């Protein structure tokens, strides 16, 4: 009940009304969102494929994470901001959208997986940073990461096919 | 284009892709995932040329790692895009945004080939420090801009449907 109230309040804000009422705002925000998420998934896959020992074994894992992950975070912040803007434009419908709910769950799982990697797996990285096979724990974390992010993209696209409300082109 | 669109609408593959309710969303997902690889690879190539990422890695090694990913994912992107056209021909073939996207695609493929060729011709000095020419840096910016524009057109096709 409280949640419905929040959703209603969100979509009644001036910003939400503007996005919902404008002909170009939603398409523009969605375009930035798609590009940002594409770069999040693409950049994180560089790190995950290295952790899976699939690619760039000649490079230190730590070099790749230091080089790539700040970009990933930047793109992720853009994706979250644009995602929130789309959400508030029709908050009550999105909150009830099954694909949207699954997408949030997968995002939470991706976050938890990343925390486990940073706290439990990365501390021992010196012994396998380069010239050694990555440990099973790192491979599992990388495989889960790829799976969760592909899931986020999948259910993100599915949101538009699940709703019966008046948003989007489909 | 309208007659081509009408002809596609009568094919068996079109019937199948419409009959299977999850076919179009699933192909769109594959299209977006291949975009992720194309866009990221193009961004890495351009950003390396500008010295923004992988400054410590030889340009040649960066090109060797990311070019095959870009071209491989582009094949997947074109293939999935063709299936999307067959499923909903009138959504794209008679849409001006789709026409613009295809023109940009030709330009982006040309820009990427040229960037790749010029980057492969660069020989690093022993200390690894190189300053790339202004024209090459310009090409890198144009290359990334074209791929971003293609992705933008891709999403906007849905909003400018004429049917």
Automatic annotation (TrEMBL), chain A:
Coiled coil: none
Name of the featured protein: DUF6644 domain-containing protein
Parts of the chain that traverse the membrane: 24-47, 68-88, 100-120, 140-160
Keywords attached to this entry: Membrane, Transmembrane, Transmembrane helix
Organism: Chelativorans sp. (strain BNC1)
Residues covered by the DUF6644 domain: 30-161
From TrEMBL, chain B:
Organism: Chelativorans sp. (strain BNC1)
Keywords from the UniProt entry: Membrane, Transmembrane, Transmembrane helix
Name of the protein: DUF6644 domain-containing protein
Pfam families tied to this protein: DUF6644
Transmembrane regions listed in the UniProt entry: 20-45, 66-87, 93-115, 136-160
InterPro entries documented for this protein: DUF6644
Domain of life: Bacteria
Start and end residues of each DUF6644 domain: 27-159
């Amino acid at each position: 009940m409280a949640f419905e109230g929040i959703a209603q309040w969100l979509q009644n804000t001036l910003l939400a009304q503007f996005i919902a009422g404008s002909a170009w705002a939603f398409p523009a925000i969605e375009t930035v969102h798609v590009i940002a998420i594409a770069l999040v998934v693409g950049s994180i896959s560089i790190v995950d494929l290295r952790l899976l020992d699939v690619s760039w074994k000649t490079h230190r894992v730590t070099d790749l994470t230091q080089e790539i992950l700040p970009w990933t975070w930047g793109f992720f912040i853009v994706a979250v901001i644009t995602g929130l803007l789309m959400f508030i434009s029709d908050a009550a419908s999105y909150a009830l959208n099954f694909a949207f709910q699954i997408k949030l769950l997968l995002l939470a799982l991706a976050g938890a997986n990343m925390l486990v990697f940073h706290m439990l797996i990365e501390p021992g990285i010196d012994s396998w940073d380069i010239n050694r096979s990555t440990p099973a724990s790192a491979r599992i974390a990388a495989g889960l990461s790829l799976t969760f992010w592909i899931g986020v993209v999948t259910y993100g696209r599915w949101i538009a096919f699940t709703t019966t409300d008046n948003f989007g082109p489909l | 284009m309208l007659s081509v669109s009408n002809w596609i609408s009568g094919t068996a593959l079109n019937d199948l892709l419409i009959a299977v309710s999850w076919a179009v969303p699933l192909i769109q997902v594959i299209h977006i995932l291949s975009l992720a690889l194309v866009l990221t690879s193009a961004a890495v190539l351009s950003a390396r040329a500008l010295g923004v990422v992988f400054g410590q890695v030889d340009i040649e090694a960066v090109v060797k790692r990311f070019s095959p990913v870009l071209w491989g994912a582009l094949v997947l992107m074109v293939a999935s895009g063709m299936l999307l056209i067959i499923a909903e021909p009138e959504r794209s073939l008679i849409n001006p945004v789709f026409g613009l996207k295809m023109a940009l695609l030709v330009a982006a493929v040309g820009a990427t080939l040229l960037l790749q060729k010029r980057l492969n011709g660069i020989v690093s000095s022993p200390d690894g420090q190189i300053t790339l020419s202004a024209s090459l840096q310009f090409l890198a910016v144009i290359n990334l801009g074209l791929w971003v524009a293609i992705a933008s057109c891709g999403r906007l096709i849905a909003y400018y449907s004429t049917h």
